[in-house]
Amino acid sequence: MLRIENYPNAYKETCIILNNMEIKNVNMISNTIIEVLKNNMNPNYTF
User: Fold this and answer.
1) Backbone dihedral region of 22: left (phi > 0), alpha (psi from -120 to 50 degrees) or beta?
2) Which of 23, 18, 15 is nearest to 43 (CA)?
3) Where are the beta strands (DSSP E) in the chain?
4) Interatomic CA distance for residues 1 and 16, integer angstroms
5) 10-46 residue pLDDT tens
6) How far apart are CA 42 and CA 47, in angstroms?
7) What 3-state DSSP class applies to 29?
8) Rounded distance between C-alpha atoms, residue 22 and residue 11, angstroms
């Protein structure tokens, strides 16, 4: 189960995955969602 305090780490993981995807696939995702991920991710988290 994902705890709320772990969301910023999950956002960081998602951003890294998106950065490694083809741009045509990333363009299918709303810019608003991408901004939420970037603004709320834990920049210090490494996995």
Assistant:
1) beta
2) 15
3) none
4) 21
5) 999 999 999 999 999 999 999 999 999 999 999 999 9
6) 11
7) coil
8) 19
Which pair of tokens denotes residue 27? 């363009």
Q: What is the pLDDT of residue 47?
A: 80
Backbone phi, then psi, for 41, in 5-degree steps? -75, 160
Tell me the C-alpha distance between 30 and 44, whole Å: 25
**Pairwise CA distance, residues 34 & 23, whole Å:** 13
Which residues fall within 8 angstroms of residue 9, CB to CB, at 6 or more apart?
Answer: 41, 42, 45, 47
Q: What type of residue sits at position 22? A: E
